[in-house]
Structures are given as C-alpha cells and as structure tokens.
Structure prediction request, 152 residues.
Amino acid sequence: MIRIVTRSRLAQLEEDARAASDRAERAEAATSEVGALLTQAMRELSAAQQELLLKGIEIRRLREEQGRGPVEGETLTVLLHHGEPHTIYASRADAYADTATHGAPVDQVWPRCDERPAAAFTWRCEAFIYNAASNGFRRLHMPAEKTLGGAA
Prediction:
C-alpha cells in the first residue's frame, strides 16, 4: 500500500504530537502533585486514627473508673488557691505539677498545713480520703482542736 503524505498533513501531525506531549507533561505533573497530596493525606489519616484509638481507650478506662465509684481509703488531693478549690487531682504529685504551670517554683517546699485559714496560702494542697460509711470524702489531716481558755 502506498500512502502519499503532504507537507500540510506532516505539519498537522507534528503539531498534534507537540500538543500530546504538552498534555502528557501536565498529566505527569498533576499525577505527581496528587501523589504528594495523597501521601500527606494518608499520613494525616494514620495520625488521626491513632489519636482516635488512644482517645477510645482513655474513654473506656474513664467509664470503667466512673462506673466503679470511689473505693474505701482512696485519696484525692484538692488544690486550693487562696482558700478556694482550684482543681481536684488523683495524686499530690499531679497537684504540685499543676502549681508549677501557674508560676509556683517546681522545687517549692510544701509545709504541712497548720491552723492558719486556707486563704492565708497562695497555693495549698489538702488530701481527702473516701469514707464508705459516710459515702463521701473527708479531710485526711484534720486541724488541731482549739481549746477554749477558761470558761466552762
């Protein structure tokens, strides 16, 4: 079979080839960009799934803890700021760490609470222990009883 190709037909084919090459380059660049976006999206998805898993575990743990209620002898620490309750913690160490976030020195020496009112202290930690008989928490260290002088 013999085919006759004219100059105009050859020029048209060359133009079509250049246009196809341009489209191929754009498609390759778009594919590369989409690949990068997909990789980033997969990383974000993985991080979100991991966070969701950890949150789910924490929620289950807290629900179990909440469902069991307080146990005889369990202690809580109440952080007082100028005598007013600020936050309740499961441990004294957690309360001390929180005071550090509010400007108290990390190495602060915490004296035992005495008969001074709680408002006399900028930060004060009070321990409370669960008493099943009263169905509530009571102070772990009760202030010393004051003796009334003289009159009886």
